[in-house]
């Protein structure tokens, strides 16, 4: 809407900083962002956090990519779109011809829109002819999704943020919710303070929610599966398991009960290094809570047992009957704004949009008919396998959009080595990221404020964002770039607006069947599955679980030791995570002056015990070295961490934390075990 003073515009948008999905009006004058005004977002009502409120100036930063860049010698030169796109299409076409479509990999951003993501996977499958397509949920929440697919059938939060607020007991496991999902955390803080909600936090680090919790316990990193399974056994042993619910709604009960045999409370106490009294007190709270929501994030998923621990959470919710009702359920908290959407859109190597398997002939022929092509039936490479594929010579080219893989993926040196080997590498982003250094062509994409489209938030909520600003310089909305590449490679695409992309996607995807831009006008939202008549499901599984017989499935589990344990040489356990003010590696937030000044430096949190042992204070420079890399950093002595656990925030200016993390992954999903890294610390002479 144009206001009285002509150049002032008010546009509805959705925050791009986390999966909570806050929406608000952004007031702009020309390119200047005047203010953010939260009005009546379904996720946030009138709230935002510091990133959502102040984190927007990066869109006008001098570092924004304004023109395509083409590698020349050891540097880059600016180019016109025509030249850049022609080069991309020609090289991808040549490599496809020489080495086959599976020699090319595509990685989609979880920050771009659903429509951008849908077209990227369509480019991979229908134009290039490969299922080598993935998105960054591989780095975060794929294990959570896997755990939910195994047990309840949908890969999404089982209820809404409102259910979390209403719940009698909130259990937060491996999530620094106050800093990573601030507005959602506020709902919990309020319910806890004012309405008697019980709050239990399991985390090795004492973050803000832990300080507020009724009980905070610190399981040894990588041991969560043990106490979760022990709690399930405890429920059965003490007559707390909801046997009526289980008999009616859950399969594989006997197999599951048998699998729980090793998981006594004594075993859990020993393995997790938590007093048995504490574990018993928590189990008793869970047993007696009328409703429970479990919130979890990277502290659970980024382990070699990430999928299994996520499965253990869902098993425990089934054991205690905490599905199918308001105020209950499983809440893996999505990191990026569109982690949920990128996977929903089929930016994954095994699924078309809506988790329809590429290996299913019926599904494939549906897509073949609509897209008028023959599609590959073989499951493609995930982004971790793509890196390995470069090393073994099977993958020759990659096209990355909005993904700074060197900073985001584990073992940064290994990833950089792969990018050096690529025959052709296209990176599309809004800034010249670390990853861009390795590109042959860099394409300037557009941030959310410069495009129309939809995002799907952590509570499966599909929301529209509208274009508030024109594309900067020669930058273009990502879907336009993908369409231009497709058409130069023989596709015949004619989308004129993202609404047409959504219409096509919805027609092929039962999960989004009734979704349309019309139904999502302004502040209207829908939570998938969206049925053809436009009705949606704020709470999943009310009428049964998403399996043919409508029954959930207990999934038996075994415990395995973490991949990287402290040794004599590497004696410290390294943990890592977000800061409130920054977004991930800080590409965007470090370019917002006000935020940058607040927290400009990188530091490693060191416990008081360790500081005393090494005779160091805050401000001391140290060198951290893992089996994979090394970095120099300042110390911050704090009671937030204990013993030999040290903690690094993700955001940095000097290089990614991931030079330290290794290549071991969750066995079911290939998600890197970022949280299983051991390091040694050398105190440096300078201060
Ligand atoms: Fe944005 Fe998340 Fe903050 Fe909401 S809570 S304003 S979505 S960063």
What can you tell me about this protein's structure?
There is one protein chain. This protein is 32% helix and 18% strand. The protein has 687 residues and is of the alpha/beta class. The strands form seven sheets. The chain has a seven-stranded mixed beta sheet with strand order 5-4-18-17-16-6-7, with helices on both faces. Strands 24-26-25-28-23-27 form a six-stranded mixed beta sheet. Helix 2 (81-99) packs across helix 21 and helix 9 packs across helix 13. The longest helix is centred in the N-terminal third of the chain and has 19 residues, at 81-99. It binds iron/sulfur cluster. Residues 15, 17-18, 20-22, 44, 48-49, 51-52, 181-183 line the site of iron/sulfur cluster.
Concise structural overview:
The chain has about 675 residues and is α/β, with parallel strands linked by helices.
CATH architecture term of the largest domain: 3-Layer(aba) Sandwich
Shape: globular
Helix content: 25-40%
Estimate the mean pLDDT confidence: 90
Helix count from the secondary structure assignment: 24
Q: Low-confidence segments, ≥5 residues, pLDDT <50?
A: none
Biggest sheet overview: 7 strands, mixed
Topology:
Layout (H helix, E strand, L loop, with lengths): L7 E7 L8 E7 L2 E6 L12 H5 L14 E4 L2 E4 L2 H19 L4 E5 L5 H15 L4 E3 L6 H10 L9 H6 L2 E5 L3 H4 L1 H13 L3 E5 L5 H5 L2 E3 L6 H14 L5 H7 E2 L1 H7 L5 H8 L3 H13 L3 E5 L1 H4 L4 H14 L9 E4 L6 H6 L6 E2 L3 E2 L3 H11 L11 H9 L5 E5 L3 H4 L3 H10 L2 E6 L11 E4 L8 E4 L4 E5 L12 H11 L9 H11 L17 E2 L24 E2 L18 E6 L15 H6 L4 E4 L1 H7 L6 E5 L4 E8 L7 E5 L27 E7 L4
Parallel strand pairs: 6-7, 6-16, 8-9, 8-12, 9-10, 11-22, 12-13, 16-17, 17-18, 23-27, 24-26
Antiparallel strand pairs: 1-2, 2-3, 4-5, 4-18, 14-15, 19-20, 20-21, 23-28, 25-26, 25-28
The structure holds iron/sulfur cluster.
């Amino acid at each position: 809407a144009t206001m009285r003073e002509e150049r002032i515009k008010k546009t509805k948008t959705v925050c791009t900083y986390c999966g909570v999905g806050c929406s608000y009006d952004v007031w702009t004058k020309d390119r200047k962002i005047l203010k953010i005004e939260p009005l009546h977002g379904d996720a946030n009502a009138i709230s935002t956090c510091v990133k959502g409120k102040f984190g927007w100036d990066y869109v006008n930063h001098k570092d924004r990519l304004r023109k395509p860049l083409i590698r020349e010698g050891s540097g880059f030169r600016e180019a016109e779109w025509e030249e850049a796109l022609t080069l991309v299409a020609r090289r991808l076409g040549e490599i496809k011809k020489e080495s086959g479509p599976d020699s090319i990999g595509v990685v989609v951003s979880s920050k771009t829109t659903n429509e951008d993501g849908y077209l990227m996977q369509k480019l991979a499958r229908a134009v290039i002819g490969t299922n080598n397509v993935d998105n960054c949920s591989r780095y975060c929440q794929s294990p959570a999704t896997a755990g939910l697919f195994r047990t309840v059938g949908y890969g999404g939060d089982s209820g809404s943020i409102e259910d979390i607020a209403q719940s009698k007991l909130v259990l937060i496991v491996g999530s620094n919710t106050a800093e990573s999902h601030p507005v959602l955390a506020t709902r919990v803080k309020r319910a806890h303070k004012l309405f008697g909600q019980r709050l239990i936090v399991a985390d090795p680090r004492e973050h803000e929610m832990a300080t507020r919790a009724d009980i905070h316990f610190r399981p040894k990193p990588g041991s969560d599966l043990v106490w979760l399974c022990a709690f399930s056994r405890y429920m059965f042993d003490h007559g707390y398991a909801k046997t009526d619910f289980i008999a009616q709604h859950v399969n594989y009960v006997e197999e599951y009960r048998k699998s729980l045999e090793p998981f006594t409370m004594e075993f859990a106490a020993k393995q997790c290094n938590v007093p048995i009294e504490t574990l018993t007190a928590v189990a008793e709270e869970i047993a007696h809570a009328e409703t429970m929501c479990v919130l979890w994030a990277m502290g659970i998923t980024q382990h070699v047992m990430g999928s299994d621990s996520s499965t253990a959470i869902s098993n425990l919710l089934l054991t205690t009957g905490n599905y199918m009702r308001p105020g209950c359920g499983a809440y893996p908290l999505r990191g990026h704004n569109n982690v949920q959407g990128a996977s929903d859109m089929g930016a994954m190597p095994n699924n078309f949009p809506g988790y329809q398997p590429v290996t299913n002939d019926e599904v494939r022929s549906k897509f073949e008919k609509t897209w008028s092509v023959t599609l590959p039936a073989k499951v493609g490479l995930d982004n971790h396998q793509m890196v390995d594929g470069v090393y073994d010579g099977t993958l020759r080219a990659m096209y990355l959009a909005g993904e700074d893989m060197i900073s985001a993926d584990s073992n940064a040196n290994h990833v950089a080595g792969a990018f050096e080997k690529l025959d052709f590498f296209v990176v599309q982003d809004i800034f010249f990221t670390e990853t861009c250094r390795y590109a042959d062509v860099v394409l300037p994409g557009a941030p959310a404020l410069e495009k129309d489209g939809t995002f799907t938030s952590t509570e499966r909520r599909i929301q529209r964002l509208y274009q508030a600003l024109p594309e900067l310089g020669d930058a273009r909305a990502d879907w336009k770039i993908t369409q231009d590449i497709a058409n130069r490679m023989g596709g015949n695409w004619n989308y004129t607006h993202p609404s047409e992309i959504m219409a096509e996607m919805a027609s092929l995807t039962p999960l989004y069947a009734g979704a349309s831009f019309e139904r999502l006008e302004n502040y209207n939202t829908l939570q998938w599955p969206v049925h053809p008549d436009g009705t949606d499901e704020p709470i999943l599984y009310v009428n049964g679980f998403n399996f043919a017989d409508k029954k959930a499935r207990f999934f038996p589990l075994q415990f395995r030791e973490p991949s990287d344990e402290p040794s004599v040489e590497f004696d410290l356990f390294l943990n890592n995570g977000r800061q409130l003010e920054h977004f991930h590696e800080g590409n965007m937030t470090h370019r917002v002056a006000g935020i940058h000044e607040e927290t400009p430096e990188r530091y490693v949190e060191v416990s008081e015990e360790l500081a005393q042992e090494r005779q160091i204070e805050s401000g001391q420079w140290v060198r951290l070295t893992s089996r994979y890399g090394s970095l120099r950093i300042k110390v911050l002595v704090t009671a937030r961490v204990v013993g030999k656990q040290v903690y690094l925030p993700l955001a940095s200016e000097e290089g990614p934390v991931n030079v330290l993390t290794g290549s071991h992954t969750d066995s079911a999903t290939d998600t890197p075990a970022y949280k299983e890294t051991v390091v040694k610390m050398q105190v440096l002479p300078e201060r």
